Amino acid sequence: MELFDPNDNHTLVPNPVPLPLCEGYGSEDGSPQEYHLPLGWQYGYGLLCAIISIMGAVGNGIVIWICLYYRRMRTITNFFIANLAAADLLLSICNVPPTSYFILTQNWPFGQAACAFVNFIATTPIVASVLTMMCISIDRYIAIVHPMRPRMSKYTAYVIIVAIWLTGGSVSFPALVYSATFANGNTTICSLQWDAPQSEKKVNSEFIYQFAYMFITYFVPVVALTFAYGRVAKELWGTKSIGEISVAQIESIKSKKKLVKVLIWVMTTCAICWAPFHIWFIVTSINRCVQLLKHASHIFTSSYVLAMSNSVYNPIIYVILNQRFRQGFKQVFQWLPWVHFDPSEALDRPQRGTGQHHNITRDAFSSCHDMNTMRNGGSSHALANSHSTLNNHNGTHRTSGASTFQSPTSRNTLTVDESTRNRLLPSFALQDADGCRLGKKGMAKCDSIYSF
């Protein structure tokens, strides 16, 4: 496939403007040299794009359906996960197919409007994805590291999601302005056409945009997500609880750890997939002669395929690491002969079951109620049974403040002030299996253990 001949712009790279003479990059006289992808590579890349488009559309569509259709899955975190899936779905449907067609035919027959739309769609979902991941990390950070703070409401989540897409559209607006089609013999090329390299100002405008775009969609999210999940991991895995904790609290901690593992995998996969793509555009905006290198076509096309494949990985991560999504996918594909689906595990069964789950739920609400009672000066039965027993083995008690609680079961007097109690108990110990937390006005909203 011809890549960088300015007189025959069969190029995948959205910079097919006339290139200056580049000594050592093209032919011996410095003029651009034609390099071709073999026909087999063209069809190979095209096939990969087709597979990515189909798997991304199906997988993310099912994720959205699971998050929104089943009542028990309609939580704040899952709303953002559905929004993340929507961004990947849009990218898989609206961007990957026309690009794969271009790879195969080296021609753009869809017109100027479609050219601008596809380039716009190529960037908007990327911004929406990274901003959504940042919102998820902030929500988890507050829920686990600062559980006493008020949680995000569903209305707030809806507003944030709308703001995410408006921001994505604003950042991607230059794609609408600079998109253009031009004839090249019997074919038509669609590309982002920045200004000619002879103009120093125009070259700088391309670099400024590419750097700003990478800064917003890559550097900032990676740093923010690393900090947030690092702090969350330290809270969950690095903090040791004092005394006894209930079964409900153990289930809550396990549930939170599983969710954080899933989100860390999502973040890491995204960072790996998009790094080469961003680096390519930064390098070529600084030095356009890099586009004349012999293997530049392979480098760009492979980086594009890797970046687009990120939309496929998230549903796979959910299925592998999360039981509820695994059950949801089994429920969707139960008609396949090799899928073993147990109807008793259906997501649409009654949320309050029997046996162990029922006991955990009952203990969870009892734990929240007892903590509320203790916070308002009640007996130490809540402290002893719901969180920890601060008695030593000799029957003596530890004193650390002014408030005295009498345990009716142990007959020991516990003297613990509010600040000491909050300091001794890890933050996630104030939550039960249903995620009940105490706010300033008593029991706060609960996140179901089945939510993710």
From TrEMBL:
<feature type="compositionally biased region" description="Polar residues">
    <location>
        <begin position="381"/>
        <end position="417"/>
    </location>
</feature>
<dbReference type="GO" id="GO:0005886">
    <property type="term" value="C:plasma membrane"/>
</dbReference>
<keyword id="KW-0675">Receptor</keyword>
<dbReference type="InterPro" id="IPR017452">
    <property type="entry name" value="GPCR_Rhodpsn_7TM"/>
</dbReference>
<feature type="transmembrane region" description="Helical">
    <location>
        <begin position="157"/>
        <end position="178"/>
    </location>
</feature>
<protein>
    <recommendedName>
        <fullName>G-protein coupled receptors family 1 profile domain-containing protein</fullName>
    </recommendedName>
</protein>
<dbReference type="InterPro" id="IPR000276">
    <property type="entry name" value="GPCR_Rhodpsn"/>
</dbReference>
<feature type="transmembrane region" description="Helical">
    <location>
        <begin position="303"/>
        <end position="321"/>
    </location>
</feature>
<comment type="similarity">
    <text>Belongs to the G-protein coupled receptor 1 family.</text>
</comment>
<feature type="transmembrane region" description="Helical">
    <location>
        <begin position="262"/>
        <end position="283"/>
    </location>
</feature>
<keyword id="KW-0812">Transmembrane</keyword>
<dbReference type="InterPro" id="IPR001681">
    <property type="entry name" value="Neurokn_rcpt"/>
</dbReference>
<keyword id="KW-1133">Transmembrane helix</keyword>
<dbReference type="GO" id="GO:0004995">
    <property type="term" value="F:tachykinin receptor activity"/>
</dbReference>
<dbReference type="Pfam" id="PF00001">
    <property type="entry name" value="7tm_1"/>
</dbReference>
<feature type="transmembrane region" description="Helical">
    <location>
        <begin position="110"/>
        <end position="136"/>
    </location>
</feature>
<feature type="transmembrane region" description="Helical">
    <location>
        <begin position="43"/>
        <end position="68"/>
    </location>
</feature>
<keyword id="KW-0297">G-protein coupled receptor</keyword>
<dbReference type="InterPro" id="IPR000611">
    <property type="entry name" value="NPY_rcpt"/>
</dbReference>
<keyword id="KW-0807">Transducer</keyword>
<keyword id="KW-0472">Membrane</keyword>
<feature type="transmembrane region" description="Helical">
    <location>
        <begin position="207"/>
        <end position="230"/>
    </location>
</feature>
<feature type="transmembrane region" description="Helical">
    <location>
        <begin position="80"/>
        <end position="104"/>
    </location>
</feature>
<feature type="domain" description="G-protein coupled receptors family 1 profile">
    <location>
        <begin position="59"/>
        <end position="318"/>
    </location>
</feature>
<feature type="region of interest" description="Disordered">
    <location>
        <begin position="381"/>
        <end position="418"/>
    </location>
</feature>
<keyword id="KW-1003">Cell membrane</keyword>
<dbReference type="GO" id="GO:0004983">
    <property type="term" value="F:neuropeptide Y receptor activity"/>
</dbReference>
